[in-house]
Structure formats: C-alpha cells, structure tokens
C-alpha cells in the first residue's frame, strides 16, 4: 500500500512536471507583458456598510447586503432589475474630502478592483461592449506564445480616480503605482529577469506615463523594456468637453451611458481627459455667440457648465499640472494611433445652451483622440534628447476601439510588440 509520504512525493513530482510543462510552453525569447486597459475597462466590486446613506430611496444595505457585489460593470444585474440603476450610479460616485485633500468613495461604500495582476477583469458581460477592453488583444498575444499568468499580466485600476500633481494626496493612485511596481518586478523575476513590456490603451497610457515618470530612472532602466501606447496623445480631447457640459440635461438610460457617454462629474479622472493648453493653446474648442472657450479657458468653461468654484480649483491644482508636465518616459516607446476617422475638433453651442445638442466640427483622429494630440507626442517625447527611442505609427481608418479589436490593426500592434521584444535598444 502506498504510504502518505509516497503519495506526497508523487504529488510534488506531478506539480514539478506541470511547472516544467508550463515553462516549456512559454517561448524563452519573449519578454513578459503587462497590459494597462482603457477607461471603464477595469471591473470594480463594492460593499456597503452601516455608514452608507443613499441619496436614492431603496438603495441601502437591505438591497445589497454587506457582501461584496459587482459594482462595475453589472450589465447582467441591470438587465434582471433595471431599478438598480440609480443605486449603482449613486454608489459609484466620488466625493472630495477637504480635510484629507483627496477624493474618496461615498461614505459607507467600500470598493476594490477585481483580478489585479491578470487580464481576467478586462471583459464585459455587455454584448454591446464586446472587445472594447483588450479581449481581442489578449487572444492575439496568446496566439504568438503569450500565456496568462506566465508571461502575460494585467494591471486594472479604479478608473474613477486619476493622478494628481506630485506632492498632493492621491491615495488610490499611489496604491496603484505601488501595486504596478510589484507586478512588473514579479513578472520580470518569473521570466528570467527579463525587463517588461508595458502595453496600454487610451486612459491606461496616461496612468503608465505617470507611473514611469514617478519611478526612479535606474528602476525603469532595469525593469521596463518598452512602452507600447495605443490610442493616446498628450493633450486630452475636445470631444471630452461635451459630456461634462451636457451631463445635467441628459438623464442617462443606463449606467454604461452615464459613464461612457456623459461621464460622471464626481470622478477625478473627468478633469484628466480635458484638452491641454500645451497642445491646443488659445485655439477655440467650444464656440458660442457670446464667447469662445479654448484649452486656456477651461476653468471659465467649467464654471459656465455649472461646476462649483471648488471643482474649478481642483482642476487647476490637481489635474492641470499633470497635463502640463507630461514628459518623455525615458524608456523605449512606440505610440500607435488610428487616423482617417472623423473626430471632434470643435463644439458649437451657438446659443450658449450647453443642454442642447452641439454642432460638431470634425477633424482627423480615431473618433475619440484628436490627431493634434498625437502629433504633439513627437514634440513632447520624440524630440527629448533623453528619450532613447521613440516611434510613432499611424494606422489609417482605425477607430479607438478598432485598434484593439480589428484584425488588421491587431496584427500591426502584435507585430510591433514582437519587434520590441527583439530590439537592441534597452
């Protein structure tokens, strides 16, 4: 009869063989990848405590209990019970704590990001959002030898928060930076100490740029092989001036509509997406009969759109300095953007009524990211003498979503990632 010791030895042997098998399936030449997704592409869980006082009747603890539940994205739950919509919207809100000098959840609402370190939290249960959040890119990378948990990792984040000017309280973003640092180090150590390739989409690019700029240069040189940034420039987008202006006048039919189309005025990240004076300067972006608003005039525009003086001051002190100080990451970088798609350059509210549908004046871009912000990358990053390598790629007729879902765009993106694996510049 097999003894307990023999059974344990057999299990250890099987585990060892299994680990060897996984290792043999990972091509030795590939550098590990950490994916940083775009806005609203990280799943959040929530939990309510006795401190929660809902602003909407029927949304208290009796509705959800004290267990963790899916706060974002919860398409299935809302399909089953649409009455939950105002509850979820209320529980997603942020408030600003003047004593702490920082944003936080509504009192009594606890939140956490799901599946940090993996790509499993990037998906959506909403059929309308299929392949919006890197699912297609994950599959494409797996097709060339990458494997979840072996050399492919994910860094989801709470998209409601945003980097603030250095030195200001920003607990949630600081926690993300610490977690991402440990993830990059672990991914490298699991892969023979190879440095990591960071691949980002949309807002994830801003988070990654700030992550790198706030990391010591020797650490970057040791642990980051390359930054591949998809669908982001360095200056926000005029398109983002419409949602925050129109939001009060458009009752949202769904939670997705609230966040994706009209945004949420309470989110710190709302201000991070506004056009940068460094890129757009005094060019009119919002046009009315009475006056025009440029990127230089964003504080005045926010006031006209109904934001409080305190909100405007937080834009000036927390978000604007980050936008103005975006700089070269000083690691090899490839920027890939779509062009050839009508993209908002200007908004016309001729009567000054921000609750009305504006007239859109389109230029070039990917449908969300304006070409002007993409071209500014060369000035801000490519022309920096301390930037070792910078490459900008424009893919014609490619949308913001199409960059991570269309077959021809994915082939180009994966090809550039493979090229970064073998490039000699790090």
TrEMBL record:
Entry keyword annotation includes Hydrolase: no
Signal peptide extent: 1-24
MF (Gene Ontology): O-acyltransferase activity
GO-annotated biological processes: lipid metabolic process
Protein name, per record: Lecithin-cholesterol acyltransferase-like 1
Pfam families: LCAT
Origin superkingdom: Eukaryota
UniProt keywords, alphabetically: Signal
InterPro entries per record: AB_hydrolase_fold (IPR029058), LACT/PDAT_acylTrfase (IPR003386)
Claim: Signal is one of the keywords in the record: yes
